[in-house]
Amino acid sequence: MTAATEVAEVTDATFAAEVLGSDVPVLVEFWATWCGPCRMVGPVLAQLAGERAGTLSVRKINADENPETTRAYQVMSLPTMILFRDGEPVTTIVGAFPKARIEERLDQAL
């Protein structure tokens, strides 16, 4: 098993460059400090980031601190994970799920 990788943060200011302009698909978690399920899904995403380094980029964005991007993608509940490929959202996962379920959704979309 690959070691977990720290999931880098993006902001309203860096979102376009780091997510929409990425050469590889990017899974973005919209989260907040007060969100319990977000804390549960965090380690799973860190693990995925390590295991899929090179083929998938994983980022997180604080929904409270980055309202522009959160509104743009109509994020209504947390955690919400959106998979972007070639600058376009291709699938959305709302809620905390086990790693296998998240991987299944990613594999279907990719």
TrEMBL record:
<keyword id="KW-0249">Electron transport</keyword>
<keyword id="KW-0676">Redox-active center</keyword>
<feature type="disulfide bond" description="Redox-active">
    <location>
        <begin position="35"/>
        <end position="38"/>
    </location>
</feature>
<dbReference type="InterPro" id="IPR017937">
    <property type="entry name" value="Thioredoxin_CS"/>
</dbReference>
<feature type="domain" description="Thioredoxin">
    <location>
        <begin position="4"/>
        <end position="110"/>
    </location>
</feature>
<dbReference type="Pfam" id="PF00085">
    <property type="entry name" value="Thioredoxin"/>
</dbReference>
<keyword id="KW-1015">Disulfide bond</keyword>
<keyword id="KW-0813">Transport</keyword>
<dbReference type="InterPro" id="IPR036249">
    <property type="entry name" value="Thioredoxin-like_sf"/>
</dbReference>
<protein>
    <recommendedName>
        <fullName>Thioredoxin</fullName>
    </recommendedName>
</protein>
<dbReference type="GO" id="GO:0005829">
    <property type="term" value="C:cytosol"/>
</dbReference>
<dbReference type="GO" id="GO:0015035">
    <property type="term" value="F:protein-disulfide reductase activity"/>
</dbReference>
<dbReference type="GO" id="GO:0045454">
    <property type="term" value="P:cell redox homeostasis"/>
</dbReference>
<dbReference type="InterPro" id="IPR005746">
    <property type="entry name" value="Thioredoxin"/>
</dbReference>
<comment type="similarity">
    <text>Belongs to the thioredoxin family.</text>
</comment>
<dbReference type="InterPro" id="IPR013766">
    <property type="entry name" value="Thioredoxin_domain"/>
</dbReference>
